[in-house]
């Protein structure tokens, strides 16, 4: 039986996993979370009361956290694209960059978005300023890091790039990557041209109107 993915196409963490599935053309059942299928959300909540997604279910067992799902797919559904290198030292660098994109790009980006969803008067402008400052610092560091590189770690597309693609995509919508960080902007464009991510972006197009900060008319 093929695995099931509880996910939504507009979610950055879900896109991270979808990229991995598409890279190796792994067959899966898409349990789309949304008003059309309330049972999917009920099943998710029963398995994982935190109710964050994506969650992969394989042989009746839930696997959560996007990074761990990608590691799981590499072990159980290996394909031609090795997203976590077999060499332990190379794998460490990939995991370090995956953590970078999660903690220092996605987390501050989500802070800005979640803040906008709060009612007026319950917002946290200082927290949002801090989050934007973190994004600026992270962009600057990444710009230096990307000198001479095509992908975030090593020479090939990896787990780290699965994280970078949706996180830089939405981070740029949230707090635009300044022109001076040309290498980050070029890397984001390279990620957008990768067929697996281009497919995820296309599948999410119908939901752009729901982006809480207003989606720009590009990408
Ligand atoms: N640490 C989780 C984060 C997942 C996450 O934040 N997912 C968002 C969608 S992008 C979510 O579930 N949002 C729903 C909510 O917060 O209730 C992972 O790596 O998978």
UniProtKB/TrEMBL annotation:
Pfam families from the UniProt entry: GST_C (PF00043), GST_N_3 (PF13417)
Annotated GST C-terminal domain residues: 87-210
Positions of the GST N-terminal domain: 1-81
InterPro entries: Glutathione-S-Trfase_C-like, Glutathione-S-Trfase_C_sf, Glutathione_S-Trfase, Glutathione_S-Trfase_N, GST_C, Thioredoxin-like_sf
UniProt cross-references to PANTHER family, sorted A to Z: GLUTATHIONE S-TRANSFERASE 1, GLUTATHIONE S-TRANSFERASE-RELATED
Name the UniProt record assigns to this protein: Glutathione S-transferase family protein
The species this protein was found in: Pseudorhizobium endolithicum
């Amino acid at each position: 039986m093929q695995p099931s993915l509880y996910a939504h196409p507009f979610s950055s963490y879900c896109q991270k996993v979808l990229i991995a599935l598409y890279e190796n053309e792994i067959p899966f059942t898409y349990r789309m979370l949304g008003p059309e299928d309330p049972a999917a959300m009920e099943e998710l909540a029963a398995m994982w009361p935190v109710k964050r997604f994506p969650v992969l279910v394989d042989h009746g067992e839930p696997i959560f956290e996007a990074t761990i799902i990608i590691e799981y797919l590499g072990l159980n559904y290996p394909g031609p694209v090795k997203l976590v290198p077999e060499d332990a030292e190379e794998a460490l660098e990939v995991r370090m960059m995956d953590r970078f994109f999660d903690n220092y790009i996605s987390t501050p980006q989500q802070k800005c978005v979640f803040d906008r969803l709060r009612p007026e008067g319950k917002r946290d402008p200082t927290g949002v300023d801090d989050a934007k400052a973190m994004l600026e610092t992270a962009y600057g560091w990444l710009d230096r890091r990307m000198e001479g590189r095509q992908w975030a770690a090593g020479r090939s597309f990896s787990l780290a790039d699965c994280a970078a693609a949706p996180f830089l995509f939405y981070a740029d919508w949230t707090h635009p990557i300044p022109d001076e960080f040309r290498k980050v902007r070029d890397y984001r464009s390279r990620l957008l041209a990768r067929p697996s991510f281009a497919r995820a972006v296309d599948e999410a197009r119908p939901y752009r109107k729901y982006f809480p900060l207003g989606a720009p008319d590009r990408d």
